[in-house]
């Protein structure tokens, strides 16, 4: 798959999803963080915002998007997650409350390095990683590079192969379009073309929520929470206008066979953004899987089941 074609399709996709309801224009170099957010400056001079809450082993939430920020998840699921871990909600460079990189370096290596520098600055020896969606690519790349720093992983509706998840999204998303108005979908057409067309039409027909959420109430809660939050979208804008996207296209599932930390995979039975059977490609040696009803936001749609699974997983992890 040629990166320039994929970039064009992804721009259409993320312009239409709820996380990117606002235009992904470049934000100021240092957007104001929430009042209780802490600050951290990377080795290349980018100011990042994060918050810490909860009790237990340290756990970094790795948000998706790309560029969606972590505030909405903290607001909606912070009480649940904080029962089991000392949660660290970082907004990645060019995302949410964090500043943009004036050099436009949003490469996977650089974003992974940001996580490692934050860990060192917090003087944490090991931490749990909890990615959501696109964050699964970032977290798995980090675990591959710094396995000695990862005590466990909780993959929430996580993507490890972006092209595979795009295929799932395009195929299922097409079925959500009104049958009497949707154009033919050529299964032999390139994936970026099919994906871009479907996501654009879902946005135009206001069907994107049906792809993301299992019920309208969950969609309404997330949308209401996102209103008024900091919305730096420079990560997304820069990623899709540069060659940086290429590294994010790697299928990281084969690499999981070499990652020996305990892993909990949480997935929605109807999460076609990721792919309902995407988890079957994972090869973590110490992997357990929880599938729950719903779609792309399991922690919001099925909090009781996720709470129970997190309690057992957190209790099983070794303490320092």
Tell me what the structure shows:
- It is globular, with a radius of gyration of 18 Å.
- It has one domain (3-316): 3-Layer(aba) Sandwich (Rossmann fold), CATH 3.40.50.
- The protein has an 8-stranded mixed β-sheet, with helices on both faces.
- Helix content is 38%, strand content 17%.
- It has helices spanning 3-16, 71-82, 108-121, 135-145, 162-176, 191-204, 208-212, 216-226, 234-239, 298-301, 303-316, and strands at residues 38-41, 47-54, 57-62, 85-91, 127-133, 150-158, 263-268, 287-292.
- The model is unreliable at 11-35 (pLDDT under 50).
- By secondary structure, it is α/β, with parallel strands linked by helices.
- α5 (162-176) crosses α6 (191-204).
Name a few traits of the molecule:
320 residues, alpha/beta, Rossmann fold, globular, Peptidase_S33, signal
User: What structural category arises from helix and sheet content?
Assistant: alpha/beta
Computed CA radius of gyration, to the nearest angstrom: 18 Å
Task: Calculate the mean pLDDT score and round it.
Answer: 88
Low-confidence stretches: 11-35
Overall CATH class: Alpha Beta
- Percent helix, as a range, is 25-40%
Name the beta content range: 15-25%
What order do the SSEs take from the amino end to the carboxyl end, as H and E? HEEEHEHEHEHHHHHEEHH
Kindly, what is the distance between the CA atoms of the first and last residues, rounded to a whole number of angstroms? 44 Å
Shape, please?
globular
Number of domains: 1
So, the CATH homologous superfamily?
Alpha/Beta hydrolase fold, catalytic domain
**Major sheet strand order:** 1-2-4-3-5-6-7-8
CATH architecture: 3-Layer(aba) Sandwich
Question: What's the story with the biggest beta sheet?
Answer: 8 strands, mixed
Helix run count: 11
């Amino acid at each position: 798959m040629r990166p320039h074609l994929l970039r064009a399709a992804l721009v259409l996709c993320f312009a239409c999803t709820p996380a990117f309801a606002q235009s992904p224009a470049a934000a100021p170099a240092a957007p104001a963080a929430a009042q209780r957010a802490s600050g951290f400056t990377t080795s290349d001079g980018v100011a990042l915002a994060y918050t810490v809450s909860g009790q237990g082993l340290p756990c970094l939430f790795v948000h998706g998007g790309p560029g969606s920020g972590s505030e909405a998840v903290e607001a909606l699921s912070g009480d649940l997650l904080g029962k089991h871990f000392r949660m660290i909600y970082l907004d990645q460079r060019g995302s949410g409350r964090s500043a943009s990189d004036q050099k436009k370096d949003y490469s996977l290596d650089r974003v992974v390095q940001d996580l490692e520098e934050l860990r060192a600055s917090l003087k944490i020896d090991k931490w749990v990683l909890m990615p959501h969606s696109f964050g699964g690519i970032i977290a798995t790349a980090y675990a591959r590079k710094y396995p000695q720093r990862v005590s466990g992983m909780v993959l929430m509706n996580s993507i490890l192969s972006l092209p595979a998840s795009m295929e799932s999204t395009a195929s299922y998303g097409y079925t959500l379009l009104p049958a009497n108005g949707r154009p033919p979908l050529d299964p032999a057409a390139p994936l970026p073309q099919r994906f871009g067309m479907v996501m654009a039409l879902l946005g135009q027909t206001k069907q994107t929520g049906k792809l993301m959420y299992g019920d309208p109430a969950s969609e309404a809660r997330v949308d209401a929470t996102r209103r008024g939050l900091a919305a730096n979208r420079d990560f997304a804008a820069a990623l899709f206008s540069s060659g940086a996207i290429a590294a994010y296209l790697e299928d990281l599932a084969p690499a999981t066979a070499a990652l020996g930390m305990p892993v909990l995979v949480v997935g929605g039975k109807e999460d076609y953004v990721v792919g309902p059977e995407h988890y079957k490609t994972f090869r973590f040696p110490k992997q357990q899987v929880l599938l729950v009803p719903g779609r792309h936001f399991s922690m919001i749609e099925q909090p009781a089941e996720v709470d129970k699974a997190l309690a057992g997983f957190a209790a099983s992890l070794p303490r320092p």
